[in-house]
Write the structure tokens for this entry.
Amino acid sequence: MTAFTIPTLETDRLILRAPKLSDFERWAEFFATERARYERGIMSRDAAWRVWASDVAIWHLRGYGPFGIDDRETGAYLGEIGIYEPDGYPGPELGWFVVPEAEGRGIALEAARAVMLWARRNFGWDQITNIIDPNNDRSIALGLRLGGVIDPEGVGEDPGDVVIVHDLRGLA
């Protein structure tokens, strides 16, 4: 395995950067609430640690993974976005969550566009998917707002998942 540096991506309002240990507190807090039901499910702190640490390790195993999202102006942690592909996944998946105070501000949309462009430029991928719980209306709406198309034949993680496919070929 070759050492590498996790990139930092910047947008008008955001800094997407390598995960750091302090992110875990907010991550665990989010996934202990009802709001996580349609993300990955409600988790105990111990389970959250195992999932979070596994996600962070994807960077070293696949060369991509989650970015912490920080407010460029204040430095506040706003959530996580990244490319996930645990063993057994049908392929790389673009996923996200934002903390409650970041909802409704276009944070996930802005961050997702930056990650999609980064993936196209760095990996040359023609497409990327979102795998979304069918009850997660907000994430489905965001996937469609990003220009994705629902693939009724797409393979998700669980039966009934909504799979949204994004064509990355138009990105510079």
